[in-house]
Amino acid sequence: MRALLLATLSMAVTAQAAGTYTTPAVLAAFKKAGLEVGKTYKMGPKDYGLGPYVGERGTRFLIPSLGEDAGGRVFEVKNTADRRRLRAYFDDLGKQSAIFFSWTFEKGNILVQINGDLPEAKALRYKKALEGLK
């Protein structure tokens, strides 16, 4: 009985850990892929603007070629509904006005949002690096 209980707990922990990543790991994957990652900083409530303040951690990163204060965000959001709500917020902004368009990519508990001024080919390289996380 004890062995069955331990096996069940082990499977639950493994299932919970699958698809769980950190913002530093995502940013490291971007750098390893040769992508631009300038200055980074931990996001606080004010950095979310009008968007839902959800998740465990948010990190802002700059992409120097886009300009002085342009880049992206990496969010750790374990709750799937919250993560999808945050993504929908960014996607809906882009549908309301092209000036607010941004790229959004998800993997596991991670949502990446990148300034829409980044050309699609470059944005897709960030997506590929995110998808390559193990």
Provide a descriptive summary of the structure in words:
The longest helix has 17 residues, at 80-96. This protein has helices spanning 2-17, 23-32, 80-96, 120-131, and strands at residues 40-42, 57-62, 71-76, 102-107, 110-115. It is 41% helix and 20% strand. The N and C termini lie far apart (33 Å). The protein has a 5-stranded antiparallel β-sheet, sandwiched between helices. The chain is globular and about 30 Å long. It is α+β, with helices and mostly antiparallel strands and 134 residues long.
Apparent shape? globular
Radius of gyration: 17 Å
Strand order of the largest sheet: 1-2-3-5-4
Helix content: 40-55%
First and last CA, distance: 33 Å
* Percentage of β-strand residues: 15-25%
The SS-based structural class is alpha+beta
Q: Tell me about the biggest sheet? A: 5 strands, antiparallel
Count of DSSP-assigned helices: 4
Low-confidence stretches: 1-17
Q: Quick check: average pLDDT? A: 88
Taken in chain order, the helices and strands follow as HHEEEHEEH
Tally of DSSP β-strands: 5
